[in-house]
Amino acid sequence: MKVYGHPMSTCTRKVLTTLAEKGKEAEFVLVDLTKGEQKSPAHLARQPFGVVPAFEADDGTLLYESRAIIRYLDRVLPGTSLTPSQPKPYGFMEQFIGVEQSYFSPAAMKIIMVELFHRGEGSEAAARVAEGRQGVEKVFSVVEPVLGRQQFLAGDAFSLADVTWMPYLGYLGATSAKDLIGKYPNVSAWWNRISARPSWKKVAG
Ligand SMILES: N[C@@H](CCC(=O)N[C@@H](CS)C(=O)NCC(=O)O)C(=O)O
């Protein structure tokens, strides 16, 4: 198995965390985003939109889109399933993967791109951070009561939904929006719980 990605990329981190949870090592092929390698013909042949990650299975199957790759890996690899078998937690898992993709990561990335990756400056950048904070607060206020009732996004077991949120929470903790995590006690306790997992320590370390 090969993962084509960049270690700092949030979407690559979803794939690496899933592999670590399943106890599987894959060959890591660096696609250097700082050199624009994601737009090279070789990478475009694997990922036609010119972003990372891309994935190659042992049988040569090529996949792209991080959330598709992690669902695939969870199905094909042995080990504890990260997809609930019961309809209700399964529905919650998919719901919160959708919330991450539609609302959480777009808001979080506004802050992360400005503060950690130094994209933009001045009042325009400040406005983007303010907008990002508003979006993150909305999302945290929605998941706060959920995480008061259950340990993880899908229910009482760690799932792919938690995996998809981790890279953004990890980076947010290094921005001015760190205070927002602390403001929501259940979100904060959940983040402490999931970020203590060996898989995340391996990937974020
Ligand atoms: N929907 C894609 C998004 C991938 C994506 O945006 N990757 C970023 C890094 S996290 C990237 O490659 N950015 C470089 C670029 O936009 O040129 C996925 O989930 O795999």
TrEMBL record:
GO terms for cellular component: cytoplasm. The keyword Transferase applies. CDD domains: GST_N_Phi. Its EC number is 2.5.1.18. It comes from the Bacteria. PROSITE patterns: GST_CTER, GST_NTER. Residues 86-205 form the GST C-terminal domain. SUPFAM superfamilies: GST C-terminal domain-like (SSF47616), Thioredoxin-like (SSF52833). One of its GO terms (biological process) is glutathione metabolic process. Belongs to the GST superfamily. This is glutathione transferase.
